[in-house]
Structures are given as C-alpha cells and as structure tokens.
Amino acid sequence: MPALLLGLTTTLVLTSCGSGGGDTNGKLDVVASTDMWASVAEAVAGDRAEVEAIIGDNEADPHSYESTPRDAARIDRADLVVYNGGGYDSFVAQILSGDTEAPPSVEAFSATRERDQHGHDHDTAENHAESGHHEHGHEHSGNEHVWYEPSSVQQVAERISEHLGQLRPQHSAEFDRAAADLGARLDEVEQRIDGIEQRHGGTEVLTTAPIADLLLDRAGLDDVTPRSFVRSVESGNDPAAATVAEMQDLVDSQRPAVLVHNPQTASSLTERIRTRAENNGIPVVEMPETLPEGQNYTQWISGRVSALERALDESPNQ
Question: Where is the composition biased (Basic and acidic residues) (predicted)?
C-alpha cells in the first residue's frame, strides 16, 4: 500500500476509534427522557454536547408514554442517556435493558436514593460547611418526582459531569465547573425554600396529584390530601365516592392554604376540585412535569417556588 494511502487510512481509523461517540462535529450526543432532564444535562455539558429530549410536550404524561422505534434508535446511538427512573419513564429502562451494548446512563432516582442512604458521594460535611451547600437529609419515601427537590438535581448534575468527563477527559474540569455553577444557583433556590419553611412550616395544603410532594415536604408543609385519593390518582383509577366527598369537605372547610395542581394529569374530577378551591378562595399553584417553552430547569424551579411562596403569603387560610 502506498505510504500516503496508508497514512490516510491510519488517520481515519484513529479518528473513528478515538471519537468516543458523538456526532461529526465532535460534540457528544446526550439523550434525555424529558426536557426537564435535558435542561440539566445542557447546563453541565454546555457547547460540548448536543442534548435532545424524547418528551418535550407539556401536554404529555411521561408515566404513560409509549416509545417508538425512533426513540430506541436515538437512545442506542447516544453517548449518554439521562432519565428519571423510579418507574416514571419506564420506557427508557426497557430500551436500555434490551440493548446488549447500551450506552452509559444516569438514572436520577437511583442517584438520589444513594444520596439518601449514604450521603453525597463527593462532598464531606466539612466541604458543605465551607461551600454553603445545604444537606437536608429528607428521604424520598419512593417518590419518583425527584426534580422537585433541587438538592437531588445537584446530585444528578454531578453524575452527569462524571460521565461526560469520562467520555471527554480533556474537558472534565469544565464539566465539573458547570455542575458546580448549577449547584450554586440551586442552593439559592434551597435558601428560599428554607424561608417558606420558616414562615409557613406546618401549614396545611391539598394536592390533586403527588407531583410536588418532595418540594412540599422540604418546605415543611402539611399535605392533608387523603391517601386513598393519592393512591387512586397514581393508579389511574377513579376515587371512591367517599374519598371524593372527603376531598370536597376539605376544600369547603377552607383549611388548606393552597391547592397544588398538576395540569398534565388533570381529569374532570381534579378540574372540579380546582374550581371548587378557587370558589372557596384557596389559591391554586400549578406544578407540571415538563418545562414550558423558553425556560431552563433553574428558571422553572425558581418560578414554581416563587408561585408557592406567593400563594402561601397571600392565602386567607393562614
């Protein structure tokens, strides 16, 4: 083989084998189950990756999403997959389990459960004290909506940074700084949640779905929603008549200061409860599952905390 051709062939082989995946412009390919987790991945990866979400429709319910062959292909070609886990976006786990050469992945639910059981992987108590990072120790009790707890999202961002750093070691410090910057912004949100707990700890609230339970618990609020209603909503069944009557009585009592409502799992029943709450002067705070257009995760969670804070401050039922 001529020397020039041999050199060219060798160069092509090395370029192909050393790319570590990613597209032709050298960027990593990151696929997330929802736009919520895509936004977190984008905050860490910056311009070093192309990040895409499988579910970005704010009308969709990830619990019941049915994947397509195109989704499987997107996950298969990814350099990194980021998903929620905990049964929330189970289609991702199903695709990964059926792939004998599945790409590396970050499962948010598992990462945060490990944090609950063992503490942060990388930060000691001394580091937390020096950095001002908050360690609250709230356990999830199986709630899969972990993006409603900013400290959990910080943990996931660290895991994403680790994986990206392994794929692109020359940029690992850059990924770590981006994750730390995101953590600092989320610490500010945590401090505002502390303020809600200080002013409104123990205040009763009602929910139409257990979407924001981690945030409500973190803020020290007392969710008085009947457990039978929560179980029915989670299973997709209609609550018993006695349970509906109990919810209506709670609303009519005007005890709850706020009604937390998930518009993406709304039904005729939950919409009636929402209207009843509004008629009783109970402020309604929407807590959805995907991002509105034009907002990143930090902006979104900050806005949801602000909405909750404002509703509690202005509620007549204090």
Answer: 112-144
